[in-house]
Amino acid sequence: MALLEASDLEIRFGGVKALAGVSFHVEAGEIFGVIGPNGAGKTTLLNAISAVYRLDGGSIRFDGADVTGLRPHRLSRLGIARTFQIVQPFKAMNVRENVAIGAMFGHARLRTRAEWLAAADAALERTGLAPKAELMPPQLTLADRKRLEVARALAMGPRIILFDEVMAGLNHTEIERMIDLVKSLKQAGLTVVIIEHVMKAVLALCDRIMVLNFGAKLAEGAPGEVVSDAKVVEAYLGQRFAKAHASAQPAAGGAA
Ligand SMILES: Nc1ncnc2c1ncn2[C@@H]1O[C@H](COP(=O)(O)OP(=O)(O)OP(=O)(O)O)[C@@H](O)[C@H]1O
Ligand SMILES: [Mg+2]
User: Fold this and answer.
1) Is 10 a residue whose pLDDT tops 50?
2) Closest by alpha carbon to 163, among 215, 121, 127?
3) Mind telling me which PROSITE patterns this protein's record contains (predicted)?
4) Is the N or the C terminus of the chain less surrounded, counting Cβ atoms within 10 Å?
5) CB-ligand 1 contact for 41 (6 Å cutoff)
6) d(C-alpha 59, C-alpha 155), whole Å
């Protein structure tokens, strides 16, 4: 069943259509990837879904109900959580308190400070940040600040999490750890949307991918199909990626 369904989303900035009628759906339990060149509209799409931007057109359904136009905190309480491409922790609060803020504003049922902190502690455990709970955000590495974003989203008790470039700027080892974290979320039954330029992560994680280009959908499908689509290679991946990817695949007709 589709957990999230977006129809004909349109966002305009002045004369520019940052999203020009994008439709897609995300199945419950899947990892759905959104890729495309810089400026293609990926973050705008996420801002449209999480109601950071008002839609100029289109509609959004979540779990069968029309949620178009609902405010961000209503959406979080329904179970839609997100991270931000530019990580933005509250600098005067420690890591644990930053995560508790997610529970406080975004969780549908938790009412007391003790409950928010308990939700924060659970999220810190899941993201491997528990040993750093008492640190202040500026003391964290970028990889840990990205984990903090994930933990804050988890503390909302979401059903779907939308990730905006949680791998960006991380080194090889940190990317592998983040891939494992996202896999563990899927295994726990969460639905995930990831916007990502790190193709290794996209290919390791996604069940399906949508490619955006100039605010419109260029392609959609299984990762293997999408990355060998000539339009996608031309607009985004480039010939070098296509050749490297093709040579990494078993030869057609070869033994499985
Ligand atoms: N708040 C805004 N005001 C005006 N224009 C905006 C705003 N947000 C995004 N845009 C424009 O919308 C287009 C899509 O931007 P968006 O940030 O969604 O791209 P993106 O696919 O996330 O790119 P990147 O991979 O670099 O993060 C760009 O032309 C951008 O300049
Ligand atoms: Mg972006």
Assistant:
1) yes
2) 127
3) ABC_TRANSPORTER_2
4) C
5) yes
6) 27
If DSSP codes are grouped into helix, strand and coil, which group holds residue 171?
coil
CATH architecture observed for domain 2-200:
3-Layer(aba) Sandwich (3.40)
DSSP 10-36: EEEETTEEEEEEEEEEEETT-EEEEE-
Contacts 24+ apart (CB under 8 A), 12-21: 12/56, 17/215, 18/44, 18/215, 19/44, 19/45, 19/48, 19/215, 20/214, 20/215, 20/216, 21/57, 21/58, 21/216
Mutate to test the pocket of ligand 1, among 12, 17, 42 (most ligand atoms within 8 A of CB): 42
Confidence of residue 90 (pLDDT cuts 50, 70, 90): confident
The two structure tokens encoding residue 78: 């329904």
Q: Which residues on adjacent β-strands are paired with residue 6? A: 24, 60
Among 4, 58, 21, 66, residue whose Cα is nearest residue 212 = 21
Tokens 């994930």, residue located = 150
Q: How far is the CA of 212 from the centre of ligand 2 (A)?
A: 11
Q: Which residue has the tokens 């400026």?
A: 39
> Domain-by-domain residue ranges, the chain?
2-200
Q: How many CB atoms lie within 10 A of CB 34?
A: 27
pLDDT, one tens digit per residue, over 15-50 is: 899 999 999 999 999 999 999 999 999 999 999 999
Ligand 2 centroid, distance to 49 Cα (angstroms): 14
219 CB under 6 A from ligand 1? Answer: no
